[in-house]
Design goal:
The complex is a heterodimer of chains A (109) and B (117). Chain A is mostly beta strands and 109 residues long. In chain A, 0% of the residues lie in helices and 50% in strands. Chain A is globular and about 40 Å long. With 117 residues, chain B is an all-beta fold. Classes of the chains: A mainly beta (109), B mainly beta (117). At the A-B interface, strand 4, strand 5, strand 9 and strand 10 of A face strand 5 and strand 10 of B.
């Protein structure tokens, strides 16, 4: 079973700053099978990035994804007030089908 | 517009049973695999179960294998999760989700299941 470890656990930044969130896998993950989600309090998660670097429908271009092998990154180029939330990475596999990281909380500094 | 509406959550005693439903609309339901994903209070996301569009392929997380059963009725555009032998650690918001290859594209708003005496 592949384990995803996200860092940092909490990231404190100000609007306008750049955010870099990390997701490290315990084994190689196909770039096609790595996704990122955003979740705000009391809401369902929202798909941001799939296939490591493809933005989902309606996602602003300030969100970008990169990486390969065991190291993946979500970058938010210039933080907007609505970007402060919890972010999860996810990989798709055979068993279990979907594995999530433990999340990174992006909070306002 | 894709819509997923879960129902059936509530308070149940340990060892009890509950059946969740998810009514889907806005897309051709039988063409898509569907998942259940849960989130314990204050915790992260945990994948629970998946079912293919036709219902012929089914997968479970180890934590629910043998206790939960996923099914679907494509004539009613509805996904189900039958949960038996419930435990306190099954307490969570349960999300119905539509999948596209290797990702969860749409999520319902969730239904809360509380297992407590």
């Amino acid at each position: 079973e592949i384990v995803l470890t996200q860092s940092p656990g909490t990231l404190s930044l100000s609007p306008g700053e750049r955010a870099t969130l990390s997701c490290r896998a315990s084994q190689n993950v196909s770039s096609s099978y790595l996704a990122w989600y955003q979740q705000k309090p009391g809401q369902a998660p929202r798909l941001l990035i799939y296939g490591t670097s493809s933005r989902a429908t309606g996602i602003p271009d300030r969100f970008s994804g990169s990486g390969s092998g065991t190291d993946f990154t979500l970058t938010i180029s210039r933080l907007e007030p609505e970007d402060f939330a919890v972010y999860y990475c996810q990989q798709y596999g055979s068993s279990p089908r979907y594995t999530f990281g433990q999340g990174t909380k992006l909070e306002i500094k | 517009e894709v819509q997923l509406l879960e129902s059936g959550g509530g308070l149940v005693q340990p060892g009890g049973s509950l059946r969740l439903s998810c009514a889907a609309s806005g897309f051709t339901f039988s063409s898509y695999a569907m998942n259940w994903v849960r989130q314990a209070p204050g915790k992260g996301l945990e994948w629970v179960s998946a079912i293919s569009g036709g219902g012929g392929s089914i997968y479970y997380a180890d934590s629910v294998q043998g206790r939960f059963t996923i099914s679907r009725d494509n004539s009613k555009n509805t996904l189900y999760l039958q949960m038996n032998s419930l435990r306190a650690e099954d307490t969570a918001v349960y999300y119905c989700a539509r999948v596209s290859p290797a990702r969860i594209e749409y999520w319902g708003q969730g239904t809360l299941v509380t297992v407590s005496s």
